[in-house]
Amino acid sequence: MYSCQVTKTANRSAEPEGDKPRLSKRTVTENALKLADADGLDALTIRKLAQHLGVTPMALYWHFRSKEDLLEGVAEQVWGELDTNVDAKAPWWAQLQRLLESLVSTLRAHPAAPQLLLEHEKRNEAALRATELTLDILRTAGFDPQYASTIARSALWTGITLVMSEPGFKPELAADERAEWQRRSQVQLSMLPAARYPRLVECAVPMSACDDPDFHYRFGIELFIDGVRAAAARLGSSGS
């Protein structure tokens, strides 16, 4: 999947004293991701994370110079959860589909992840590995560099869009608040003038809530893969 630029944390020559327990970079990013998933990405702060970990903010600055630096580390944490172990013997489109399914699964597991990858898309090592594999699959299938790059970027955007476009997707709301929002949205659509908006009235329920999320994601992924396979056939690529 496509990703764009990296900022590396500068080396520190000495660790602040008195900040126990000693934290690893991974421990910090894992806990930051948990807080972001629970309270929203915008609510995540260095001070709040330090309090959650039972350390002073200075202990976190040992690993990350700023919140921006921290979020880049959390983005790498998300990228690192992708399963890039595809079957090289499978058809190219099945390999691409497997990667997209892994991306969607990772994004669904972390409510903060779609916004995180949208706003903090960097060239970290995990993202580079996923991107390299995606491009290799597409180049092996016969797509030239321009088409391969465009499809790789589109795959990332498709995964993010599928999660954020799930009807009723409101990760910032509690479960009961989200249910109430969906109910009101459904009522509003149902109450539209039927003579003018017959299809919106007819589809009020599925347009407001996702009663079958697996269908939403399965269909979206298959739609993307079908489109790429159609492009391969049209361009005369090898693996349709």
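The above is record 1. Record 2 follows with the same two-line structure.
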Amino acid sequence: MKLEAIRLRAQAIKEIRRFFDEMGFLEVETPVRIKAPAPEPNIDCPPVSTGGFLRASPELQMKKLLAAGLDKIYQIGPCFRDGEIGSRHNSEFTMLEWYRSQATYLDIKEDFRRMFLALMENFSSRAKKEQCKIEEISVRRAYREFASWDPWEGEWNRDKFDYDMATIIEPELKRHEGVFLVDYPTPCASLAKISGDVAERWEFYWRGLELANCFTELCDSAEQARRFEEARKERKALDESPYPIDSNFLTEIAKIESAAGIAVGIDRLIMVLGGLAEISQARVMD
């Protein structure tokens, strides 16, 4: 990592904090070692020898703070995933997450748009010369136009959906600058609220690089418990160890009337701002 990238990273994180502080958000810090991660089928959290796991996200703990009465919170901190390494992935990375009570994924979309454009204007030499172009494409339209099939029609096929996302949709998005990919099929809801036949979820890509993942949060504890159990079954089917269920989280989210939240990869964001090709260039590596 070059000194210019170190300086850029420090300045960008300082600007992110200023952005949220001026919007009245409270910066919080939650544990890095947790008892029970969200049981995502394809996300493996490193186990800790003394018990628990290193977090892949502070999501569950931050939503407990919403349930306790905080309404606008953000956090910047380390997260971990086993088996993730490459030009865009690292097993240790830095995540920015923020949550708002009484909000939807549309509200968070505008938060993100304002933050991202401000960072691009301040730190990207390309953005200083011309305005960044940001589009919005529905997941359904993307699959129909780029992959020639509709995930909402016929029997749901997770493997085909994920494979085509990686090999067709994301490469196609490299032809665009910024893209909000919005409204996912309901089997992709995870911790998101379902509205009609779509999950209230979007992801943001910059030239094919995923930077952010946002939900209108599911606040129904019984439905979340059902989804967690389904995810545990999927992990077993993939020969992955099932995680324990965070029963306290399931109890607490029932206290949240409505909320929305987002996860943004800081390292990838620095890649974009600095025009860097490798995630290793965006953070100090051991």
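The radius of gyration is 18 Å.
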